[in-house]
Write a structure and sequence with these properties.
Layout (H helix, E strand, L loop, with lengths): L6 H12 L12 E2 L15 E15 L2 E17 L3 E13 L14 E7 L2 E2 L2 E5 L15 E5 L5 E3 L1 H6 L4 E11 L1 H18 L10 E14 L4 E13 L6
Parallel strand pairs: 1-2, 7-8
Antiparallel strand pairs: 2-3, 3-12, 4-10, 5-6, 5-10, 8-9, 11-12
Length: about 240
């Protein structure tokens, strides 16, 4: 389908609808079809995401067809301020299913874990250890106890629980504290995840087709502006960019 909207605005609308702001102290927009402003905004206005167009090319759909099939490359810049941290709570989020292996893991290593549940029933004891090497052997771990590693985010279940709860969904509520480079990486991962999972079905993405992740690049700390930055490049296809059919 073709629409009369520039591709960077389409992607902006999509990300505004799907990516959650980790800065709960502000309201209003923080994702824009332009490079993020960094010099004239207060610290409480970060992080920010900007979308710019890098290149555009096209080819005719047929010998006598004026309709063009465009290839467009968009750059997504995620910036965050140094020493500006934000706590992000994930509530009853799925970590996977207990099967034959006692190992599941968090996508991002938590700073604290509120609970871990099997089929919405909380385990009685949740214990943090420094590393996987500190895990109790599953056969020696008491039933109803789950250990999680501060260095990897891996979970360790008792052999009894693995057997008794095989096939059940494991969920957890946890808190991550994101600052600087961690904040930009977290949001960059969320951008990629949302595009990958929802580009076909979300109405805000109408017109942009076939996303291909070209690169995701963390850049060195920008001391002059006191910001961290991740650069994401995506390639999309679109009919008759900004013209419609």
């Amino acid at each position: 389908m073709a629409v009369k909207i520039e591709p960077q605005q389409i992607l902006t609308n999509f990300l505004r609808a799907t990516v959650s702001d980790i800065n709960s102290s502000r309201s209003g927009q923080w994702i824009y079809p332009d490079f993020p402003r960094v010099e004239d905004l207060g610290n409480n206005q970060f992080p920010r995401i900007g979308i710019t167009k890098i290149s555009e090319s096209s080819k005719a759909m047929g010998i006598f067809d004026n309709t063009q099939w465009h290839t467009v490359t968009l750059q997504i810049d995620v910036v965050a301020k140094k020493d500006r941290g934000h706590s992000v709570t994930s509530t009853d989020s799925s970590l996977g299913t207990i099967a034959n292996s006692p190992r599941l893991t968090y996508d991002f290593i938590p700073d604290s874990v509120t609970n871990i549940k099997h089929n919405a029933v909380a385990f009685g004891t949740v214990t943090a250890v420094n590393s996987d090497a500190s895990f109790t052997a599953p056969g020696s771990l008491a039933a109803g106890t789950v250990e999680w590693s501060r260095s990897t985010g891996n979970l360790n279940f008792s052999s009894t629980d693995v057997t008794d709860y095989s096939g059940q969904t494991i969920t957890s509520t946890w808190v991550e504290f994101l600052e600087g480079e961690e904040a930009t990486q977290y949001l960059a991962r969320q951008v990629i995840k949302q595009i990958r999972a929802n580009w076909r079905t979300n109405s805000n993405m109408t017109g942009l087709e076939n996303p291909v992740l070209i690169s995701m690049i963390p850049t060195p700390f920008d001391e002059a502006n006191s910001i961290f930055r991740h650069i994401i490049e995506y390639q999309f296809n679109q009919f008759n960019i900004a013209e419609g059919l």
